[in-house]
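User: Run a structure prediction on this.
Assistant: Running it now.
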Amino acid sequence: MSTLTMTGWLVSGRTLFPGLLASAVLATAAAFLSQQYGMPVMLVALLLGMGMNFLSVDSPCAPGIDFTARTVLRIGVALLGLRITLVQIVALGWQPLLLVVLSITLTIAVAMVVARLLGFQSLFGLLTGGATAICGASAALALSASLPNHPLKERATMFTVIGVSSLSTLAMVVYPIVANAFGLDARHAGIFLGATIHDVAQVVGAGYSMSRETGDVAILVKLMRVAMLLPVIVFAAMLTRRRGDLPAGARPPLLPAFGVAFLAFVAVSSSGLLPSALINLGSDVSRWCLVAAVAALGMKTHLRELVAVGFKPVAFMIGETVFLAALALALLRWM
């Protein structure tokens, strides 16, 4: 290993350390409060993080907080694969897959039509509808790279990222209440949460705040949605080519690496080759990574930023979110 590489790692480590430490401290505090008062650890971590969100703005902690909310989160999600086997996946049946395909297709189609009716471009509906229906901010960035260049494209992308992140945080708190109100059992609650909440972190937080089974089902259904990013990007690229304006620059991966790693860990867990002690260790590391990531996500949440874009786009995204949730509940009843 070269001295230059080692120096780069040390500099990067010093940059990330304050934010990593802040996230770890909040995760530890959340775990303690959860044990003392019987509250969901993910919800406690989120609330503690939101109370400390000033650390993510012009602070030495900001780079580490961002790293925790993104990279540490993905490590935690990938390691969740150690807790899930192919037997559990098969047990879900065909209904969740059909629900995911129908909900994504209908949400994007309706969003594109309503966007035109409201005076927006249909591609804005594709951007926000895809982010809502698939995987939040990650889908917004991936779809943005596949859409035609436009003077307002960057602003629309940033609004979408802020919108889905904020609404997903709200859904993390509200949707478990909705699931209980509709009398959903652990499996159906997991399908509902995994099929409707925008971002992975909030799916994890909402699912495991209800039960371990609900969380496991929710993350499986969520990763089904993530996999649907590929055909939607292909659809966006087809629209772009038809308009004759191909996007410049490198495109993001069609399938996030953490999703691939998750599936790899599922395969390893299903093989029975790993001892139970190692699987338990991986599960514990995953849990701490996810709690820290949810705390970091809370520190990055600034709901006031949505006010600056006006009411109509905000109402549009809220409508997409409500439509997806209502559609998922209806499909669950029908199936």
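Residues 53 and 299 are 4 Å apart (CA to CA).
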